[in-house]
Amino acid sequence: MRSSDLPQRISRRLLQDIASGGLQTGQHLGAQQLADRYGVSRTPIREALNLLEQRGFLQRQENRGFFVGELDPDVVAEVLEQQPEQDQSPYHRLADDWLRGELPEEVTEQFLRQRYDWSKACTSEVLVRATREGWVERKEGYGWRFLPVANTPEAFDEIYRFRMAIEPAAMLEPSFELNRGVLTELRRTQEGMLEMDFSSVPAETLLQNGSVFHEEVIKFSGNPFFLVSLQRVNRMRRLMEYRADVNHDRLIEQCTEHIEILDLLEAGDNLGASHRMRRHLSSALKRKSPLAWSWAADAN
After folding, report:
1. Ramachandran angles phi, psi of 150, nearest 5°
2. Residues 161 and 250 grouped into a single domain
3. How many domains does the chain have?
4. What do you get for the CA distance between the two ends of the chain, in Å?
C-alpha cells in the first residue's frame, strides 16, 4: 500500500460512517478522535479531512476544526459507488492470514515488511489498528504477539452462549440505571440502519454499530465486570464476523430486535427486556453459526 493510498481509504471510511449514521450532520471531527477510531496516526487523518472538505462533504471552521456538513444521502451513496473498496487492505490481509493459521504467534516488523512487501509506515499503521482492535500486542522489548481470536465454529458458538448468560443478567442488576441520552442515540442509530443502503457500508462498520449497541446497554448495569467481559469477547469474534457476507434481511431483523429491546427498557420493563435480549442472542447464534462454519471450511 502506498502511503498516499491511506488518506483516500480513510476518507472513504469517513463517508461510509456518515452514510451508516455513525457520524452525524454537524458533528465535530477531531483528528485524535478519528485516529483512535480507525487505528492510524493523525497525519493521514488530517489529509483525509482536507480531501473531504475540498469536495464539500465537511465544513472547516476557523480555530474549531472540521464538522460534518449537510449531505444528500443519495450523493454520498453515488460517490461511494464510484470509489469501490480495494479488494483487500493490508489490515485485512494480515487478519486473514492470522485466522488461517499462516502466521507464527510472534513476529517482528521486519518479518511483516518482507512477507507482505509493506513500507515501514504501512506496517506500523496495520499493527496500531490491530492492537487497538485487541488481537495484537507489543512484546516487552522487541516484536509483536498475536492474541487468541475466535477462529473456529466451536469458539464462535461458545462466545454467543457466554453472551446469552451475561447480557440478559446485566439488565437485572440492582445497580441498573438507564441513561436516556444514550438510549436516544442508540435508537437513532438503529433506526438509521433500517433506512441505509447496506451495499455502501463495509461489514466492519455494521458490526461496530451492533457491538456499540450491546456494550452501551450492558453498561447501564453499573457493573464494570459485565462490560469488560463483553468487550473482550467482542474483540475475539470481530475478525471472523468481518468475513461474513452482509445479509440485508438479517440486518433488518437484528435492528428491529434492538429497537424492541430499547422500547422495553424505556418502558421500565427490565425483565421483559432481559428475556428479549436472550431470545435475540439465541436467534443471532442460529443465524450466524452457519456463516462461521462456511468460512472455516473455506479457510482450511
Report:
1. -80, 100
2. yes
3. 3
4. 27
> Please, what sign has the CA dihedral across residues 163, 38, 204, 129?
negative
Is the model's pLDDT at 71 over the cut of 80?
no
φ/ψ of 125, rounded to 5, equals -65, -40
User: Residue 35 maps to which CATH number?
Assistant: 1.10.10.10
Q: Left if phi > 0, otherwise alpha if psi is -120 to 50, otherwise beta: which for 278? A: alpha
Q: Residue 179 in contact with residue 226, Cβ under 8 Å?
A: no
Residues in the chain, overall count:
300
pLDDT at 199: 63
Question: For residue 137, what is the domain's CATH number?
Answer: 1.10.10
Question: Residues 24, 135: one domain?
Answer: no
Q: What is the pLDDT of residue 2?
A: 45
pLDDT band at 63 (very low <50, low <70, confident <90, very high): confident
Q: How many CB atoms lie within 10 A of CB 216?
A: 16
Tell the residue number behind the cell numbers 473531504, with chain if given. 52
The domain in which residue 107 lies consists of 90-146
Question: DSSP string spanning 50-113?
Answer: HHHHHTTSEEEETTTEEEE----HHHHHHHHHHSPPPS--HHHHHHHHHHTT-S-SEE-HHHHH
Q: Cα torsion at 8, 14, 18, 20 (round to 10°)?
A: 100
Considering the domain architecture, whether residues 225 and 271 belong to the same structural domain is answered as: yes
SS3 label, residue 4 = coil
